[in-house]
Each structure stands twice: as C-alpha cells, then as structure tokens.
Amino acid sequence: MNTTQQEGNSLLKDLERIRKKTKISNKVINGQLEQIITEIEEAKSINDYSQLKDKLQNQKPLTKIKQTNNECYAYISKLGKNMDKLYKKNLQYGQEHVELDKNVLTELIKTHLLRDGEFEAYETLLKESGSAESSFHQFFTEAQSIVKDLKERKLDSAIQWAETREKKIMNCLLFELLKQKVIQLVQTEGISAAIYFMRDNSSFQEQGQAHLYEIRLMTCSIFLWPNVENTKYHYLYDDEKNWPRILNLFLEVAAKSQNILTKSEIRTVFSAGCLTMPKLIKYNQITRNRSSEVLTNDIPIDIEIGKEFKYHSFFVCPVSREVTNSDNPPVLLKCGHVISKLSAHKMIANKSKFKCPTCPVETKGVDLPELIFI
C-alpha cells in the first residue's frame, strides 16, 4: 500500500468515527429534548410551572446536550488537523498571479547585482538578456569601492567622493567623515597631526560654522587623549559603533543622491513577502470558503512588518475600507478620529452633524479639515 492510499484510509477512518459519533449524539440530543418537552407539557397540563425550573436544573438536559455537541465537534476538529498534516498548504491562496514586465524585471535584477557588487553576474546578464548598460553601473562600481575602504577603516576615498557631490545632500555625511578622520589621526599619529588636519583642510573649515558646537566638543576630547575613556567624550572614540554608523550613513546618503532605495528592491520585496505570506495564507484559508458576495480581493489587510519596510504613508478609511487619495482625502473629526471625505459626506447626508463611527462624539458637517500624511 502506497503513501497516498494510507493517507486516504486514515481520513476514511476519521470520517467513519464522525459518522458513528454523530449518530449517537443525535440519539442523546433527541432524548434530552423529548424529556424537556415532556416536563413542559406536564407543567402546562396542571398549569403549574413552579417546579419546572428545579426539575430541569436537577436533570441538566441542556448541559448533556452541550457536552454531546462538544464531543462530536472534537472528532470533526481532529479530522481537520489530520488533513493539515497530510496535505501541504497551497500557496496559491496566499497570493494572486501578477504578470511582470520582463524589461522592468531585468532592470531590477541588474540594479540588485550591481548593488551587491556582483559585477561578473551583471555582465553575464547583459550578454544573455541583450539589454543595455545600466545607468547606475558607474555609481555602484564607485560606491562598492568606497564601501570596501570604509570596512577597512580608510576614509580618504569617501571624503573625496562627498566633496565632489552636491553640498546640500552631503553636508552631514562629509562632516561625519571628517570628524572620524580627526579621531583616527589622534589615535594613530597623535594630537599634532589631528590639529594640523583641522586647521589646514578646507572642507573641515567650511563645516566650521554649521557644526561649531560639535567641533568644540571634539577639540576638548583631543587634548584629553589618551585618557578620554574616563570622560564624557568617550563615545567619540568608540570605533565598534562609529565605523558601522558611518558606513550606514554613507549608504543612505549615496542612495539618496541617486533617488534610489538604500536596500535592493528585490531583497526588500522578498523580505517583506516572507513576513506577510504566512498571515495572508492563514487569512485566505479562513475566508476562501465563505460567500463571495461578502469577501472580495479588494478588502485591505493591515499586516505590521516593521518601520524598515515603510516607504510612504497611506490611510485606509475605517468606514469604506478604501485607501484615501487626492480625490478622496482623509478628514479629521472633532474627536480626533479620521475617516475619508466621501464617507463623511455619506454620513452627513442632509444633517448638520453626525456621530463618529468609532466613538459617540458628534461632529458638525462643515469645514472638516483635510489631513496630509507625510
């Protein structure tokens, strides 16, 4: 007997148990119901219901009916659990089929490979797909070289890169790189080398006015070297925290300069999918057998996956269950709750005021302030 036959026989045995238990349960339930009817008819015939309550409480027919139902349900529940064990969950209930544009997908893969420094795989993809060179090729090549230097605690290439970019975007990064350079000089070449760098470096001088307070703190810490660990400036020399922070800051600013995400789009979607898919599968397994008139694919499901996966704000109206937009913006009620503008208009109708759908506070139907989520 093969595995499939064994699984089928196991389910048939469960169903047979349910059939027998249901048959027994029906007899017990019908017997208890007949007893209740008999007691009621006797009380009715003598027109005296004073003893009826005591008789029913002593005999406990309703309790027996409930226990019998629970026992029957236990067999049904066991069948469901066995089916879950025997048959794997079908992923088709957790997602909808989406047609992807091949050109768009190729561009995403190319950017993903460049971002991870997989240049050989990138060149292979270009040859096999026949697509053009990515506009980000040079940027990621240079960025990967700088990332490598920063991991080796070399700052010169990153400083030079930041100095040649738009100052408005690079100011924070450039100062952090220069500050770390000063700290590094103090640690490796001594106080004099750090002071000469602060005095002679033009980029450091340009940062002076904008970061004057931080420069003063850094200067104080320099003259306390090498006993700075016992002072309030010790955090400036914490290499285990400062170097990873600078690397992450470089990646964020570099991505911002190109108007792209810090992390790979493919990796981000994959990670978010791994977090949401189990919950979507569970939701669809619960709802897929219900009436299609009530449940549709347009119902939004709020799944919390963490701030790192949030790239823009949006609002789902608690009344209409629709995502608000410029034509149907969210509006603020008197109580502080928020609904969509169209939902508010429907609730107002011809009234001068209406109750909040969340709380009993009333709001006047005029001049509802619109909200803008950033």
Automatic annotation (TrEMBL):
A zinc finger (RING-Gid-type) spans 317-359. GO terms for biological process: proteasome-mediated ubiquitin-dependent protein catabolic process. The keyword Translocase does not apply. It comes from the Eukaryota. Residues 139-193 form the CTLH domain. GO terms for molecular function: ubiquitin protein ligase activity; zinc ion binding. Pfam families: CTLH, zf-RING_UBOX. Residues 317-359 form the RING-Gid-type domain. One of its GO terms (cellular component) is cytoplasm. InterPro entries: CTLH/CRA, CTLH_C, Fyv10_fam, Rmd5_dRing, ZF_RING_GID, Znf-RING_euk. Keywords: Cytoplasm, Metal-binding, Zinc, Zinc-finger. Its main location: cytoplasm. It is found in: Cytoplasm. PANTHER family: GH10162P, MACROPHAGE ERYTHROBLAST ATTACHER-RELATED. This is Uncharacterized protein.
